[in-house]
Amino acid sequence: MSAAKLFLLAGLLATGSYASPVQARTPYAVKDSHFVPSKWRQVAPAPSTHNIDLRIAIKQNSFDDLERHLYEVSDPDHSRYGQHLSELDVKKLVQPADHSLALVHEWLADNGIETGDLSYSAAKDWIKVSLPVGRIESLLDTKYSVYRHEDGSETVRTSEWSLPVHLHEHIDTIQPTNSFFRSTPKAVTLEVNKFGGSYSKDVTYHQDPNVTAICTPRGVTPLCMRTLYETIDYIPQSAGKNKMALANYLGETNNRSDTSLFLQKFRPEAAAAAYSFKFDVINNGSTSQAVVQSRIDIEGDLDVETMLGVGWPTPLTAYAVGGSPPFIPSNGTTTNTNEPYLDWLQHVLAQSDDVLPQVVSTSYDDEEQTVPPSYAKRVCEDLAQLGARGVSVFYASGDSGVGTSGDCITNNGSGAKRFTPEFPSTCPYVTSVGATMDFNPEVVAYHSSGFASGGGFSDLFPRPAYQDKAVKAYLKTLGNRDAAYFNASGRAYPDIAAQGSYFSTVWNGTDTLVSGTSASTPLIAAIIALVNDALIAGGKPTLGFLNPWLYKKGYRAFTDITSGSAAGCSEIGDGKGFPAVEGWDPVTGFGTPKFRDLIHLLGVHGTWNHTGGFS
Ligand SMILES: *[C@@H]1O[C@H](CO)[C@@H](O)[C@H](O)[C@H]1NC(C)=O
Ligand SMILES: *[C@@H]1O[C@H](CO)[C@@H](O)[C@H](O)[C@H]1NC(C)=O
Ligand SMILES: *[C@@H]1O[C@H](CO)[C@@H](O)[C@H](O)[C@H]1NC(C)=O
Ligand SMILES: *[C@@H]1O[C@H](CO)[C@@H](O)[C@H](O)[C@H]1NC(C)=O
Ligand SMILES: *[C@@H]1O[C@H](CO)[C@@H](O)[C@H](O)[C@H]1NC(C)=O
Ligand SMILES: *[C@@H]1O[C@H](CO)[C@@H](O)[C@H](O)[C@H]1NC(C)=O
Ligand SMILES: *[C@@H]1O[C@H](CO)[C@@H](O)[C@H](O)[C@H]1NC(C)=O
Ligand SMILES: *[C@@H]1O[C@H](CO)[C@@H](O)[C@H](O)[C@H]1NC(C)=O
């Protein structure tokens, strides 16, 4: 019996009866506190009847074991490479100890919260309960406030919360409390209705494999991407077994009519997919095909058009995740105070092995420092479960280089200047994707408007072993440049890159040029989906968590990008951030994919319909 259990029994004796009301069995102590990000201001006390969907992360039984499995099945030199875990395997590894659950249940019961009010994640490692602020305030011995972002959105949060001491080791985090994470879409719209009509050279299959003849920097098309990254001649064979997915948040969704117009123009043979891709709705997420309000769906349309334009005929699922700003706190509603990213994660983790997609693209992120470390860590560990189950999880590296100029300040109250890395890209268990532009050669994406491929080093997550060699080599080249403004021993990102500048899209029925790592991420996901297609056809396992393979072997099948930089944070140094160099760099990672080399490296042989002469 552990010390905590004894402590609890002592408490029971002291209070006399199990069901006796609110009597903390150990004194409360602060469990977690976090600085409020500088863009948020406390404006009022929270209405005590405002409801929050509270999520309690119970300590998992054995994350270390899960991590070991993850690295074994993802390491190309390990005998278990490719032997991804099943839903059940993962569940067993992450489910909490009965003892931890029992302690949490007792504490909730003491606070008048009955088991019937609770719902659980698949592995029971998260408990969800909807409660008014007033009750949460006594449960967590805290005080919630209304905070307003400088963009006008509001949310209900607190900067610090407490738990009875005996529960500290059994609960990783409870949210929404002190997390101000609000990841935003990484699509930068440039021009709406600015080009039109002249796609003739793209509409038909182009016999000229010369990229220069097909690609134009202002108006990147599926034909260009497929030629540049060499998927053009590949005939997919595994569309029945292979799947790909993208995630929509914050009211964004994917417009079928726009997608259809786009595909008719740029990938006619795929046009029907505009009406056949599936929505998987989570927490009442939007699938609205109604008339567009403001600039909604630019991100959603870019994502779906890019994925189908390149990855077709791989079947696509679009996760439509509800919960979005503006976060107007009001009495008796739960709207928008929740954590949509957790909703998504728990939904996919509960999906059975035959439903789970092999790749997922997410073009949303936020500054790492808006997330309390305990919460970031737990979300990252949950993302590792997806990797262990064989899902390649891609996140955009951000659109502001090392940080948004003028905003490069640490959040810890000191006001010190610092590069501002983006989460979840900083999570070591995901693959982060940067952006390039131009052709012959491709260079780091950069526009004078400030858009620059995001990159940097985590302040929370240490550098994983798989990237030791690559990152150390880079740091050596870098010398002391800007050394005071980032943590050189943190997880460095991105891992790879792809085109992300001036994509031709159709949005709101019109031709629109969109840029961003938001474009690069679904593009990479679609290409890896085609690699998986060849692997499945060759009787091999799919790639799953890419990074250990990528840093050991896969990088050889990528074009190194050596020109440009993660420009940003003009208040720091020369404002150019990290430069791209020969080899891996925190701007474009190992660079952009070469499909033929990828599948050759993986020992499979694709089926090709053209004169490529690949064997
Ligand atoms: C080769 O593939 C392209 C693109 O999928 C297609 O348009 C074309 O008709 C195919 N050509 C042959 C000879 O099969
Ligand atoms: C591709 O086209 C460009 C411009 O037309 C030309 O300069 C280049 O030599 C061509 N490259 C190849 C490999 O044919
Ligand atoms: C779901 O969203 C729709 C459209 O925004 C809204 O009308 C409806 O009330 C919502 N349903 C729930 C259960 O929140
Ligand atoms: C969807 O596309 C149709 C046709 O272009 C358009 O009328 C509608 O406004 C679009 N809706 C959204 C939400 O983008
Ligand atoms: C969407 O298209 C419609 C019809 O062309 C137009 O009236 C509307 O202003 C557009 N919406 C936006 C936000 O551009
Ligand atoms: C919430 O309810 C309280 C008490 O009934 C009331 O004083 C307050 O004005 C209400 N707040 C909002 C935002 O409706
Ligand atoms: C805040 O962060 C900066 C940069 O990492 C560091 O130099 C400073 O010591 C920190 N201050 C506090 C109060 O934690
Ligand atoms: C740098 O990161 C490492 C690994 O995450 C951490 O242990 C160390 O405390 C960090 N150093 C500073 C100065 O923040």
Automatic annotation (TrEMBL):
Binds 1 Ca(2+) ion per subunit. It catalyses: Release of an N-terminal tripeptide from a polypeptide. GO terms for cellular component: extracellular region. Residues 219-605 form the Peptidase S53 domain. Its cofactor is Ca(2+). GO terms for biological process: proteolysis. Residues 1-19 form the signal peptide. The active site is at E299, D303, S518. Its main location: secreted. GO terms for molecular function: metal ion binding; serine-type endopeptidase activity; tripeptidyl-peptidase activity. Keywords: Calcium, Glycoprotein, Hydrolase, Metal-binding, Protease, Secreted, Serine protease, Signal, Virulence, Zymogen. It is an enzyme of class 3 (hydrolase). Ca(2+) binds at D560, I561, G583, D585. CDD domains: Peptidases_S53, Pro-peptidase_S53. Secreted tripeptidyl-peptidase which degrades proteins at acidic pHs and is involved in virulence. This is tripeptidyl-peptidase II. It comes from Aureobasidium namibiae CBS 147.97. The lineage of its organism: Eukaryota, Fungi, Dikarya, Ascomycota, Pezizomycotina.
